[in-house]
């Protein structure tokens, strides 16, 4: 299963990897998409620094899993 970034069309092998991409990019268009899904980019980033285990990535990856699947 593959997942495609809704902003820049990058294809990732997992939703978690795509989540890392989106948070890692941090540019305006990626932040805007994240914010449009009810998350705050700054809060996801803060979760990554404060928690152990990638909680920010996992929260976003749940949404990405539902919305960005690409049929192989």
Question: Can you give a write-up of this model?
Answer:
- This protein has 72 residues and is mainly α.
- It has one domain (2-71).
- 60% of the residues lie in helices and 10% in strands.
- It is built from four helices and three strands.
- The chain has helices spanning 15-25, 28-36, 41-50, 55-67; strands at residues 2-4, 11-12, 69-70.
- It is globular and about 35 Å long.
- The N and C termini lie close together (6 Å).
Essential attributes:
3 strands; 72 residues; mainly alpha; 10% strand; 4 helices; globular; 3-stranded antiparallel sheet; 60% helix
Nearest-integer average pLDDT = 90
The number of domains is 1
Radius of gyration: 11 Å
- Going across the biggest sheet, name each strand in turn: 2-1-3
Q: Report the major sheet.
A: 3 strands, antiparallel
Q: What is the strand content?
A: 5-15%
Structural class: mainly alpha
Order of helices and strands: EEHHHHE
Low-pLDDT residue intervals, each spanning 5 or more residues = none
Total strand count, please? Answer: 3
Helix content range? 55-70%
Number of helices: 4
General form:
globular
Q: Termini separation (Å)? A: 6 Å
């Amino acid at each position: 299963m593959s997942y495609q970034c809704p902003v820049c069309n990058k294809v990732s092998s997992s939703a978690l990897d795509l989540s890392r991409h989106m948070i890692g990019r941090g540019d305006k268009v990626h932040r805007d998409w994240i914010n449009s899904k009810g998350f705050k980019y700054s809060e996801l980033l803060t979760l990554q620094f404060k928690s152990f285990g990638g909680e920010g990535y996992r929260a976003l990856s749940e949404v990405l899993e539902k919305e960005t699947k690409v049929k192989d």
